[in-house]
From TrEMBL:
This is Transposase. The lineage of its organism: Bacteria, Pseudomonadati, Pseudomonadota, Betaproteobacteria, Burkholderiales.
């Protein structure tokens, strides 16, 4: 999980390991969360599947920034 402050909101990018079988390569599902003053404002659901944990977290953060920009 990676967090940052963006335009007064705390935004979070999540990477969720999605390995179905030990022989398959690791994949990470991405999601994002937006909070303000400890209250959850919005969550994304699954945004897609990524090869790296970092790519998944960055996708979640990008979604959260876009949500804040479109609702601010």
């Amino acid at each position: 999980m990676q967090a940052e402050i963006y335009k007064g909101y705390s935004i979070w990018g999540h990477a969720i390991l999605q390995q179905m079988d030990i022989l398959e390569p690791e994949r990470y599902a991405a999601s994002g969360t937006i909070t303000q003053h400890t209250k959850v404002i919005e969550t994304s659901g699954i945004l897609g599947s990524f090869e790296t944990e970092e790519d998944a977290r960055q996708a979640g953060l990008a979604w959260a920034r876009a949500w804040v920009d479109s609702h601010g």
